[in-house]
Structures are given as C-alpha cells and as structure tokens.
Design brief:
By secondary structure, the chain is mainly beta. It has one domain: Roll (Hypothetical upf0131 protein ytfp), CATH 3.10.490. The protein is built from three helices and seven strands. It starts with a strand and ends with a helix. The structure holds pyroglutamic acid. The site of pyroglutamic acid has 9 residues, from loops.
Length: 156
C-alpha cells in the first residue's frame, strides 16, 4: 500500500478521476485533503493543457490536493498512465493534512506533516516557468485552459 498525493486531473471532479474509481485499474482509497509544506510551481502547460507540479521547491505556491492509499496494481496503473518516468517522475513530497476521513493506522494525524508520493516533473521546458502558477488545479477554472482528454487527442 502506498500513499499518493494527487493535485491535477486525478482529483475528485476532474477529468481523470474516473481512473481512480475504476477497480480494473486497482484500488484507491481517499483519505483526505492536503497541502504541500513547501511551495512548488503548479502550471498548466503544452497544447493539451496538462497540469504539472514542477519539482522546484520554494517557488510558486503551497499546492492543494488529495491523498489516496493505493494498492500495487493501482500504483502500476498510475505510473503507466502518467508516463512515469518520461513525463512525470514519482517523487516524495511533504504534506500538511487539511481534512481527513476515516481512522486507522494508515491515516495521518491532522496538522502533522506527512509524506506521500506525487507525480511531479524535473523534465519541464524552461519556458513553463513563465506560466502562471496555481494553488489548486481546476480544469474548468477561469484560466480557460481546459484539459484535453486522451480520448479527444486520439480523435485528431
Ligand atoms: N495527474 C496527476 C499529475 C497531474 C495530473 O493531471 C495528478 O492529478 O496528481
């Protein structure tokens, strides 16, 4: 079992959340909402408007997201789905839990800092550093940079 912090299209209500629910991919259990302890630039980049957490601690904003416990099958699926390690690399991030559901030994205590994996990237284009940064990703936000789904890309 592995803790994963998702900040982009895998969050509830975002375009790839259904992948987390699909038990054919494995299991993902929501345990709460969290914010990164350090600042990172969360940008939307490329022609498909993909969210990327740039692995540059200290720049950008403290980023909000969701923490899930995933089984090995889901972890393998997510590594594949996120084109890890080519596009994203799965790295450790320190989090502050903001809202926890459930109890149990796998549930972090509120307020304590807590470590999980996240799909961030070291292989970004230099010009992405000029993009606006976000505290919380929403594909349908006022930025107008709506995520282009895989299915939509394949049709072109
Ligand atoms: N999916 C992963 C990384 C960025 C994305 O869109 C996530 O939601 O955390």
């Amino acid at each position: 079992m592995t803790h994963i912090f998702v900040y982009g299209t895998l969050k509830k209500g975002q375009p790839n959340y259904d992948r987390m629910l699909n038990t054919a991919n494995g299991r993902a259990q929501f345990i709460g909402r969290a914010r990164t302890i350090e600042k990172y630039p969360l940008v939307i980049a490329g022609k498909y408007n993909i969210p990327f957490l740039l692995n540059i601690p200290g720049q950008g904003q403290r980023v909000q997201g969701e923490v899930y416990i995933v089984d090995d099958k889901m972890l393998k699926f997510l590594d594949w789905f996120e084109s890890c390690p080519q596009m994203y690399q799965r790295s450790r991030v320190q989090l502050e839990m903001e809202e926890c559901v459930g109890e149990g030994e796998d549930t972090p205590n509120m307020g304590n800092s807590f470590e999980a994996f996240t799909y961030s990237t070291n292989t970004h284009k230099p010009e992405w550093l000029q993009n606006p940064t976000f505290e919380s990703y929403d594909s349908h936000g006022e930025h107008g940079l709506r995520y282009v789904t895989r299915e939509a890309r394949d049709m072109h």
